[in-house]
């Protein structure tokens, strides 16, 4: 299990320090929530912020674009230093082309699905993906409650991936905490995003240990 803390719940006034603290605490990934005020109600941050903070961190930058027509910004985010660019299936008419473009630029490519979006949209593109993000809340805000049917969705996606002999990662984002971590891992989740249940419980090294212990017990 990889834990990818969502900076949405961190202190935006001290992002450089937060990134250093995560690295020191033993985290390997960090999750950037980019919101455009169109695909989701909120606006957060964009490529210039990530580009500046890339200089401060060796963490794996997992960039979740909650942005309408993400194809407009793929170049910017890869140039800013995103290691993985995750786009929403609901946000583009040209999913295959945008995935190909992310990979052509040299980053890893992921597709995110809102809670109501069926796995069948992945039918023809799954083999091209490094990761699928199952949203377990409706995107736009931190601190929401985990939607229970997401568990079944993770299990079904895991079945699809195994059936095809792929090594695509399954990421889960929204309302993840130590109480649902074991079941998520049992159902096939590889990468867990946690915002409020991570940053709200310092010290970070201890919190990481808690998540890892629960995951190991799965
Ligand atoms: C929701 C974001 C999530 C969010 C998770 O729109 O994509 O990454 O920050 O926060 P928690 O863990 O608090 O649900
Ligand atoms: Zn996210």
Automatic annotation (TrEMBL):
Binds 1 divalent metal cation per subunit. One of its GO terms (biological process) is pentose-phosphate shunt. It catalyses: D-ribulose 5-phosphate = D-xylulose 5-phosphate. GO terms for molecular function: D-ribulose-phosphate 3-epimerase activity; metal ion binding. One of its GO terms (cellular component) is cytoplasm. Its EC number is 5.1.3.1. Its cofactor is Mn(2+); a divalent metal cation; Zn(2+); Fe(2+). A divalent metal cation binds at residues 31, 33, 64, 173. It holds the Pfam family Ribul_P_3_epim. InterPro entries: Aldolase_TIM, Ribul_P_3_epim, Ribul_P_3_epim-like, RibuloseP-bd_barrel. It comes from the Bacteria. Substrate binds at residues 6, 64, 140-143, 173-175, 195-196. The active site is at 33 (proton acceptor), 173 (proton donor). NCBIfam families: PRK05581.1-4, rpe. Belongs to the ribulose-phosphate 3-epimerase family. This is Ribulose-phosphate 3-epimerase. It comes from Halodesulfovibrio spirochaetisodalis. The lineage of its organism: Bacteria, Pseudomonadati, Thermodesulfobacteriota, Desulfovibrionia, Desulfovibrionales. The gene is rpe.
